[in-house]
Amino acid sequence: MPKIFQKLGSMSDNTVKATEERQVRARSTAVWDGRFCTKEYWDYGMSIIPPDAVGADMTKHADHGSYSPRFWYRDEDFACKDCGIRQVWTAQAQQWWFEVAKGQINSRANRCRSCRQAWRKKSGKLSHATRRGAIPDVLPE
Q: What is the pLDDT of residue 137?
């Protein structure tokens, strides 16, 4: 039995209902794409989607040839590899990265914004999103 259902068994009725409602909301933003997984695998992923997740629109992912598609996004903690500051890569920023900028499906945040900008200036390299023409007016925080 998936852990989410084990946890639900120990919660009050109101908490279970709220959790289920949040899961439904997370699933409502998710869109399946047969290029990346079978419908059965997708259905399983949607059955265990965390209540605090943002569903992934797989139709907007770049082709990646991976057996590990992203079904959802959740806030992820990371430490900047340059300055060591701990930050959060938000679910909304991940959604932008994977669905708009078409970032590599297995990529993760590894630099804070200021170190990333300094690294680009020093190296003279353009960002992935700039190369793809996906830089919006304002990046999600």
A: 44
pLDDT at position 128 is 66
CA distance 61 to 95: 10
Beta-carbon contacts of residue 68 (< 8 Å; ≥ 6 apart): 105, 106
Q: Is the pLDDT of residue 131 over 60?
A: no
Beta-carbon contacts of 48 under 8 Å, excluding residues fewer than 6 positions away, are 2, 4
pTM: 0.72
Cβ neighbour number for residue 106 with a 10 Å cutoff: 9
Question: Residue 86 pLDDT > 90, yes or no?
Answer: yes
Least Cα distance to 51 among 25, 12, 89 occurs for 25
More confident residue, 74 or 16: 74
Closest to 80 in 3D by CA, of 127, 106, 117: 117
Share of the chain above pLDDT 70, in %: 80
Pairing of strands 86-89, 76-79: antiparallel
Q: How far is CA 113 from CA 73, 90, 127, in A?
A: 19, 13, 12
CA neighbor of 109 nearest in space, from 135, 75, 133, 132? 75
